[in-house]
């Protein structure tokens, strides 16, 4: 995609780099929204209603981030791509691997999903510090909200002494088993 115009004060080259970064964030956020709904539909067990109802506001919040991110891409002169095929072709992470399962097991796996999305958002914050403080502000606000969602998830995984039962898990399935 060639960017032919962008916002005043930004070079086309910088806009091209920021749009590419934001396209990756758009894919990650779309994937996260779908994953949250998948979990919402597939939680079972004694904590079902608490987790089921906790996830709906998170889905809505992430969907709002998707829209804001796509509109920022367009503002910078890019063309946001939100098709499923584009997301699957571009993603660098595996598909969510937990199906119908106990709510706490899902939260163990979801914690790792959030860690990945937040980590990449933080990299984007660093990368846009010089080139686009407006995009950086957007990413900072999104990261703050995502971190709060992760905190809600981690509250279910935390022991009385403050450790996470899933702290050393490297995969979703391992995190689910340790939860």
Tell me the helix content.
Answer: 55-70%
Mean pLDDT: 96
Q: What summary fits the major beta sheet?
A: 2 strands, parallel
Cα shape: elongated
Order of strands across the widest beta sheet?
Answer: 1-2
Q: C-alpha Rg, in Å?
A: 17 Å
Tell me the distance between the termini.
43 Å
Q: What is the count of helical runs?
A: 6
- Name the structural class: mainly alpha
Order of helices and strands: HEHHEHHH
Strand content: under 5%
Low-confidence stretches are none
Number of strands: 2
Q: What does the model show?
A:
This protein has 179 residues and is mainly α. It is 68% helix and 2% strand. The chain has six helices and two strands; from the N terminus they run αβααβααα. The chain has helices at 12-42, 48-75, 84-90, 103-127, 133-155, 172-178, and strands spanning 43-44, 101-102. The chain has a two-stranded parallel ribbon. Helix 1 (12-42) crosses helix 3, helix 1 packs antiparallel against helix 4 and helix 2 (48-75) packs antiparallel against helix 5 (133-155). The longest helix has 31 residues, at 12-42. It is elongated. The chain starts with 11 loop residues before the first helix and ends with a helix. The mean pLDDT is 96.
């Amino acid at each position: 995609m060639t960017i032919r115009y962008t916002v005043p004060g930004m070079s086309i080259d910088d806009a091209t780099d920021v749009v590419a970064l934001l396209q990756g964030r758009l894919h990650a956020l779309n994937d996260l929204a779908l994953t949250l709904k998948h979990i919402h539909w597939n939680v079972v067990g004694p904590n079902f209603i608490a987790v089921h109802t906790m996830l709906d506001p998170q889905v809505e919040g992430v969907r709002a981030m998707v829209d804001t991110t796509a509109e920022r891409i367009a503002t910078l002169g890019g063309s946001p791509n939100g098709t499923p095929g584009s997301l699957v072709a571009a993603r660098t992470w595996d598909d969510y691997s937990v199906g119908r399962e106990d709510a706490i097991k899902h939260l163990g796996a979801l914690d790792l999903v959030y860690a990945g999305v937040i980590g990449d958002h933080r990299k984007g914050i660093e990368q846009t510090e010089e080139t686009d403080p407006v995009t950086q502000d957007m990413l900072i606000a999104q990261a703050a909200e995502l971190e709060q969602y992760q905190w809600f998830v981690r509250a279910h995984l935390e022991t009385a002494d403050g450790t996470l039962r899933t702290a050393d898990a490297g995969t979703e399935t391992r995190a689910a088993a340790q939860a």
